[in-house]
Design a protein that fits this description.
Elements (H helix, E strand, L loop, with lengths): L10 E3 L26 E12 L3 E12 L2 H21 L7 E10 L2 E12 L2 H15 L4 E2 L3 E3 L2 H29 L2 E17 L16 H7 L2 E16 L2 H5 L1
Antiparallel strand pairs: 1-2, 2-9, 3-5, 3-6, 3-7, 4-5, 8-9
Length: 248
Amino acid sequence: MALPAPSPARVFAELLPPQALTPTSAPAGRGGPPTPSGREVHVSGSAELSAGPDRARVSLRLGSREGAGGAARSSVARRLEYIAQSARQRGVPEENMTVTEDFSRVENTYQMEAEVCITFSDFGKMQNVCNLLIEKLGTSVTISPPHFYHTPEAIDTLRCQVCVAAVGNTRQKAQEVCRLFGQSLGKPLLIREEETKEWGGHIDSHLLNSPDSLTLQERIQNATAYASCRVFAVFEIKGKENRRNKLL
């Protein structure tokens, strides 16, 4: 989904001498906006950031159909143990692996099916594990394409970072305006987050009907999350810019 073009930045500066801004009292019994006590610069600015997925989930399916139930169970159990051992040896925590099993009777045979879901935070490690299992287990295991997603903590970090970046861009604009008029930027008087947008990326949710032909990088790109933020800020104008600082 394309992000609409951001609105042009607005910059308003009040460069009258401080004494020209005389506070006026609000009528008795009435509240009103605070009267400016000095010169100010009003600026709006924005920022846009993206974050790639920080988790990937891989599903492995395997099964066996035998005339004896014990043989079907044993065949699947051996492969399950090999999968778990291979993942552990490559640093995957036990809690990042879940196993579900289904045992049934089909006609005159016994069928044992199992699914292993492994969650990775290291995508290089994920590729190593999957490549090893394909090499060693061959067609006796079916490995689904990885599903990439963001943890809630990763999305919260993105939201925080884009807001901070927008505030930084806004302050830089205000500083440039002040320098243009030979003034020095003072402390912030107001910072207000006006608009935030998020698009792309899916928090731990499967994409329906996603084509299996996508490459790994294409899947990561499809799961990348984007965020934008626009803020409005008011800064104090302190006065003439220090000549020594200007030369620096």
